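Lab notebook, bench 4. We co-purified these components, and the gel suggests they stay together. Before we commit to crystallization screens, I want a quick structural picture of the whole thing.
Request: model the full complex, all chains together.
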Amino acid sequence: MQVIKELLDTFFSDVGVFDAICVTFQMAFCATAISSVLGILLGLLLERADFVGKKVVIRINRTLMGVPPVVVGLIVYMLLMRRGPLGRLNMLFSIRGMILAQVLIITPIICGMTYTTLVSRAPAVRAFAKTMGADRLQTQWLVVRELKKELYFAVVTGFGRSISEVGAVMLVGGNIKGHTRTMTTTISLLKSQGIFTEGLTLGLLLLLMAFVIQSLADFFQKGERSDENY
Amino acid sequence: MRIIDLEKSQGDFQMRTGSFSIEERKIHGIIGGNGCGKTTLCKLIMGILKPDSGRIDYEGLNVREITMTAQRPYFIQGSVYENICYPLKLRRICPDEQKIDGWLARCGLEEKKYQYARSLSSGEQQKISMIRALIFDPKFIMIDETLSNLDPENLELFEQVILEIQKERPVTWLLISHRLAHIYKMCEVLHFMHQGEILASGSKDEILFGSEDERIRRFVANEVIRMEGKHGAFES
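Here is the predicted assembly.
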């Protein structure tokens, strides 16, 4: 690990690239994990529950799927700043604060994608489960199992959004070197310093890492389909 | 089981079954034109759909003991074996390998055991769907045109299976089919459905050959003509 750190420090200017990579992945993994649980559960709930104003809730969720991250960043900043309602938690300019902002950005995306998939596919699965004598819990588990590829795609989309996000993490994290600086905020910093080549290289490194993670996830997905013969 | 004035609206379609009984341990058939509500009735019995009004008196039968196979069966992601074992897994019953292998061999599917179920032909899928429905010994089985894609040999095989089950440990069957020859051969009681209503219930001879109702007579005549034109095989 030390070797990689030294190698990166040799190649890049003194911007703390190694720490930025660690922070980026720590933040993206945590935010995606929390958002996946929340988003999938909310999507399931939204599809199953019938209540007054459901259509409005769906519309609001779809709107939030495209919310500008910088707006979320600003809101979270105002919540977490010393005089804000959550100031006591001391989360501003910390990774936890950045994760909170990311969760607010990603959860509606995963929830919306989950809901859309469920609306079209879940009734057939539920009807089948009923004919097999499944109880409520077994039915919900089957729905999730049968739609795992679609849900996986929603999670991957959330992860992609998280890892590439810059506006909210810049505002909430403050881009503090070695502490809250991420790869994207480093790129932004390098650009402002006019060091374009390094910025571009870091961008490619980010893409490469995302590609490796995606490939690993795909590899495990394929393992589950080994009995398919079409 | 007693069906009591079930009503269900779906778009323009309005179902009003009236009241009728499905006697246990008998093979019942439902006949009627396309879109008359046969599948909707099965879904209501299965609890997949909720009726707008009316009710079903299951007379002590647990819904978990009822099963239904569809014309286009659903298969979970996985092999034929995983699909057959699914209802057993739900009930925490250990699969009887010999029984499963026996079923597969009988249907000529022993080599497909570990193949991906969704990759099979529609006829093979219908056979798997039947095995899956029978494997956990339900007490009420609804077959919604599931046997329609089977060739005569396989259709006969399942007809024989149904009759064997009825001999050994009788259960209640509700068969939906457009093959009148199949219905006539298998069913003890017939229900004729027209525009969401059960017009008549009775023995197969009463319904097919003794009905005074013009709609039933026309339906039977049309089906006989259609089948004679297709196969020349309907004899009664």
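Chain A touches chain B through 20 residues (CB under 8 Å). Worth comparing against the SEC data before the next meeting. The two ends of chain A are 43 Å apart (CA to CA).
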